Amino acid sequence: MGFNLKEKLQNLNRKNIVIATVILLVVAICAITGYEYYQYHQLKVKAEAALQEAFDQAGPDLSQEPKKPSEYNIGEEYNKAMKSKKPVLVLFFADWCGYCVRFMPIYQEISEKYAETFDFSKVNVEDKKYEKVVREIGITGFPTVFILDPKYDNKVLLSNAILGNTESLSKEMDRYVRIRKILDSKKK
Fold first, then answer.
1. DSSP type of residue 4
2. Collapsing DSSP states into helix, strand and coil, what is residue 150?
3. Do 178 and 146 fall within a single domain?
4. Of 32-46, 92-106, 168-182, where does mean pLDDT reach its minimum?
5. Would residue 150 count as lying in a domain?
6. What is the reported pLDDT for 166?
7. Are 75 and 9 within one domain?
8. Cα atoms found within 13 Å of the Cα of residue 16, Cβ hemisphere only
9. Cα distances (angstroms) measured from residue 104 to each of 25, 122, 127, 138, 157
10. Of the candidates 57, 71, 82, 74, which has an alpha carbon nearest to the alpha carbon of residue 132?
11. Beta carbons of 85 and 151 less than 8 angstroms apart
12. What's the rounded Cα separation, in Å, for the pair 41 and 168?
């Protein structure tokens, strides 16, 4: 009296075969979807870990809202800076300007790097006290960065194309320092 599958199946009626088939299909589907969910979950965990590692390597906490340009303590008030004997790197900005917000860490770094050769000033174009300056200089977009040199009554507009990184902005500032040294040597 052994176990004979064929004989057992013949003894089952059709209803039982249908029920058994449905149960087997449900078990198979559950097994496949469970495995797929497991694979999806594993990929999701790996992706989240990679994303977190990228954020950790990026430096500042990107989950916080970036500071507005007016919240940075860089340089001095415009009118005071324009009485300087050094050239002044002036940033014209608006707090709502996303490009200005992204530029501020670069401006901060540049202000520290060139503290000996340049003075720095920020002008909020929406501040009524700077209305005349903004109009006279002709500010039409943000951020706008000028090298203003009161000593030589010189005004140099820096292209926004070089504002994206510290290196290109540094090259332009170094170039201005070289030109100013030539002017100073001829003035003697």
1. -
2. coil
3. yes
4. 32-46
5. yes
6. 92
7. no
8. 6
9. 61, 10, 18, 21, 18
10. 82
11. yes
12. 44
